[in-house]
Structures are given as structure tokens and as C-alpha cells.
TrEMBL record:
Binding-site residues, substrate: H91, D121, G193, N194, S195
Name of the protein this chain belongs to: Probable periplasmic serine endoprotease DegP-like
Domain of life according to the entry: Bacteria
EC number: 3.4.21.107
A Pfam family the protein falls into: PDZ_2
Catalytic residues of the enzyme: H91 (charge relay system), D121 (charge relay system), S195 (charge relay system)
């Protein structure tokens, strides 16, 4: 009796055939000043490496040449509009002096850069075709599940029109590539040259843009990452319309909600984004959102952890009024805010940071008046492993603390204490304890004593550094 053979996965030949014409190879060239005067390696005639070295040193001009070197690179892309708009990665075309798009039928067209977004590593190109191009549609990456089949088409190692198949291995991956990391992970083979190419679902819709791989060898080991279309589609629309991105901006500084912070705030679980500061002149500088608030939902989208908030805010249109669900003083409340523009906000924050940064040339030895040394701030008994004192003018000058900071100065931190473990250093300022402002050392002692009487295990502190940057930390109460 013949042994039954197990059927393999269903063929994707029909699917691939209808998509290959929309995927393109992108070649770029960049003129680089030739700083290295090393001679071209002498390769024996007929050597299998001769073509490689000839191509690599193309334009070098040989030993002693003062000419610049032409560096070529290859990547992938795909047509998103028959009129000639092509999506790819920013790193594929970054710094290029010349961009050429190679189509599956062998034709080539020069491309113009429409716009780029380094934060998501995306770029949009435009070619001028004589006839409408074959384009592929975007699909909804949000409905894709771990284990769903996907297909990648690209230009690995310059081998155009290569098709690979795999599954979605994970979603929502953060690989520290940018502020809005939310990658789809796939085991479909992705190699160098695949960057900028599409990741398709089994309907032939683009659900990701292949962007990065983890590989010690440079080749695929089955761990590739794609920017999901839920993020990319809006970016391409903005680049096409404006030539740049126009992201929403809330104007807050945030930090994670740890288990200790959640306990101190009376939360049943650690979730959301903790507001540690409000940007002066920003969209919520009117008091609608306050420091100490925890954002748990934004415009109907849950904020499970801190990194979710910047992404959902950035995806929201500038000027849109949105509902924000907050946790404030242990109670949930909904406020409405109107978003500003992130690109304008970044300039504003940079200016604010520059203004708040102390003069780098100033040292503790310089901080004297009339040739007299400043008196050291008065030391007090240790509280939570910290010496504290009132923030008077002497303390400001000793620790170079800006005038905008209000609270109680930390004059010393005992080693091997909870405060030291949390990174607190002399010159930091306690602004709040348990979300209540403190102005004197006696108020700090009283607040800590009250927390002890309530059998609290941690004290929630708002700490300002000497430049005024705020952060929340919890310090264990012994």
C-alpha cells in the first residue's frame, strides 16, 4: 500500500503573477568625496573577484586621483498610483544624487524625490510614465493575525522580482529604530535589497513595507520587520499632499507607568502614559491636562503602555479635537484637546531646552559673588536616604538650578539606598510627593511621615533636575 503523501501549502503563483509588475527595483548613485588615497587592489586578470572590485572602485580614478567616488546602492519599492507614485524606504534613497527605477519589463525611469520621513524610514518617489503603471492597493494591517500567511516581493542582493512566502511571526515589535516602532515581524525571507519592498496579504494587498532584518551574517535568518500600513498609509498621503509630514502634537512629556507608580497612584494595573511635564505654549498648556495625569485612552484608542501614546497622537490630524481619557487623583475623567503640529512643536521644545540649559562653561568654582565663596546649603537629617534643604538662592547657585524650578533641594544622597538606586543625585529638586506640591524641607518630612502612617510601601516623587526637566519616580519607604 502506497504511503499517502501530505499536501504542501497552496501555490501563490497566481497571486505573485498579478503583483510582480507593480514591484520595482530602485538603484541610486551618490558622489562621495574621495578622502582615502589608498590604491585600488591589484586583482589577477580573470579572477572571479575582478568584476566585484571593478564595480566597487568604479569612478575612483585609481591611485592618486582627486576625483570623488560614485557609490551605488540597490533597494526595492512598489507603485501605489498608476500616475507614477512609488513607495520605498528612506534609507534606500537617503543622500542619493540620482535615483533610477527599474521595472519588471526592463524599462527604466528617472525618479524625483517627493518627500521623506526619517522617523518611520519611509520615502515617496515620482516617475513620469508614458502609460499608466500597474499599482497595488493598501490593505488593513490591523486585521492581520499572528500566523497569517504573507508574501514579500523585492530585489534581494540585486536579484529583481524575487518572491518569498512566510507567516506573520509577531506584531507590534519595538526594535528601537524610531519613535513610532510598531513593526510586523515575519519569517518570509527578507535580505539586503528587499528594503522598501511590499509585504502582501493573501488578497494581494500591501500590509507592510519591508524595512529591517536581524542577521549576524547579513542574510535572512527568518527575522524580518515591516512598517505596517496602518502607520505608513497616512505618511504616504501626507508626503504626496504636502511633501512633508504633518503629525499631531499633544505637547506633554511622558514616562512609563511602572508597577510601583501604579500602586502609588491607586491603579489596579500598570498601564497608560504618565504625564511628567507640560510643554510651555503647547496645545494643553491651558491646564486641560496636568502633570501626574495618566493617559489611558486617546481618541478611542487604548494606551496600553507609554510608547503607544506618541504613535496614536502622531497619526491624528493637526487641529483635530479629540477626547482623552485620563486617570487623575484616582478617578477617570474625559477631556477634549485640540492637537498642534509636531514639527512646529519640536522647534519650540528645542528652543525651550536651549533656554533652560545652564551655561556649560559655568562650574561650581565659578559661582561666587564679590570674590566670596557661597555658603553650602544647610544639611538636614536623611529622609528616604536623602539630605534635603530649602531651595534658597545659595542652593540655586551651588547646584546651578534654574529659576523656574520650585521645590525642595536634595543636598546629598546616601549610597546603597533606594534613592541612590533610582538615580537621584544632589542638585535634584523634589517638586511633589504623592502628587502634592512641597516647598520646604519640613513639608517633605511631614508628607513622608503621613505615608508611613498609612502603611504605604512607596513614595511617589516628582523630581526636577537642575535644568527643570521633570520625571516621576517611586522611592521605597523603609
Amino acid at each position: 500500500m502506497a504511503q499517502a503523501r501530505q499536501a504542501g501549502p497552496e501555490s501563490v503563483a497566481d497571486l505573485a503573477e498579478g503583483l510582480l509588475d507593480a514591484v520595482v527595483n530602485i538603484s541610486t548613485s551618490q558622489n562621495v568625496k574621495n578622502e582615502d588615497k589608498a590604491p585600488m587592489p591589484q586583482v589577477p586578470e580573470g579572477s572571479p573577484f575582478q568584476d566585484f572590485f571593478d564595480e566597487f572602485f568604479k569612478g575612483d580614478g585609481g591611485e592618486g586621483s582627486n576625483q570623488g567616488q560614485t557609490v551605488n546602492s540597490l533597494g526595492s519599492g512598489f507603485v501605489i498610483d498608476p500616475a507614477g507614485y512609488i513607495a520605498t524606504n528612506n534609507h534606500v534613497i537617503e543622500g542619493a544624487d540620482d535615483i533610477e527605477v527599474n521595472f519588471a519589463n526592463g524599462s527604466k525611469l528617472k525618479a524625483k524625490l517627493v518627500g521623506t520621513d526619517p522617523k518611520t524610514d519611509l520615502a515617496l518617489l515620482k516617475v513620469e510614465p508614458k502609460a499608466p503603471l500597474k499599482a497595488v492597493p493598501f490593505g488593513d494591517s490591523r486585521v492581520m493575525r499572528i500566523g497569517d500567511w504573507v508574501m514579500a516581493i523585492g530585489n534581494p542582493f540585486g536579484l529583481g522580482g524575487s518572491v518569498t512566502v512566510g507567516i506573520i511571526s509577531a506584531r507590534g515589535r519595538n526594535i528601537n529604530a524610531g519613535p513610532y516602532d510598531n513593526f510586523i515581524q515575519t519569517d518570509a525571507a527578507i535580505n539586503r535589497g528587499n528594503s522598501g519592498g511590499p509585504l502582501f496579504n493573501m488578497k494581494g494587498e500591501v500590509i507592510g513595507i519591508n524595512t529591517a532584518i536581524i542577521s549576524p551574517s547579513g542574510g535572512s535568518i527568518g527575522i524580518g520587520f515591516s512598517v505596517p500600513t496602518e502607520l505608513a498609509q497616512n505618511i504616504f498621503s501626507q508626503l504626496r499632499e504636502f511633501g512633508e509630514t504633518r503629525r499631531g502634537w499633544l505637547g506633554v512629556r511622558i514616562q512609563p507607568v511602572t508597577d510601583d507608580i501604579a500602586e502609588s497612584l491607586g491603579m489596579s494595573e500598570a498601564k497608560g502614559a504618565l504625564v511628567a511635564g507640560i510643554i510651555k505654549g503647547g496645545p494643553v498648556d491651558n491646564g486641560v491636562i496636568q502633570t501626574g495625569d495618566v493617559v489611558i485612552r486617546f481618541d478611542g484608542k487604548d494606551v496600553h503602555e507609554m510608547r503607544d501614546l506618541p504613535r496614536v497622537v502622531a497619526e491624528s490630524p493637526v487641529g483635530k479635537a479629540v477626547d482623552v481619557l485620563l486617570l487623575r487623583n484616582g478617578k477617570e475623567m474625559t477631556v477634549k484637546v485640540t492637537l498642534g503640529r509636531l514639527e512646529d512643536g519640536e522647534k519650540q521644545v528645542d528652543a525651550e531646552d536651549d533656554a533652560a540649559t545652564p551655561d556649560e562653561g559655568t562650574t561650581e568654582e565659578d559661582t561666587t559673588t564679590g570674590g566670596e565663596e557661597l555658603a553650602e546649603p544647610q544639611k538636614a537629617e536623611l529622609v528616604l536616604g536623602m539630605g534635603i534643604g530649602d531651595l534658597d538662592e545659595a542652593a540655586r547657585k551651588t547646584f546651578n538650578i534654574v529659576e523656574s524650578v520650585k521645590g525642595v533641594v536634595i543636598t546629598e544622597v546616601a549610597p546603597d539606598t533606594a534613592a541612590a538606586e533610582r538615580g537621584i543625585v544632589p542638585g535634584d529638586v523634589i517638586v511633589e510627593i504623592g502628587q502634592e506640591a512641597v516647598a520646604t524641607a519640613e513639608e517633605v518630612k511631614a508628607r513622608v511621615a503621613k505615608l508611613k502612617s498609612e502603611d504605604r510601601r512607596n513614595a511617589l516623587l516628582m523630581i526636577a533636575d537642575r535644568t527643570g526637566a521633570l520625571r516621576y519616580i517611586t522611592v521605597r519607604i523603609d
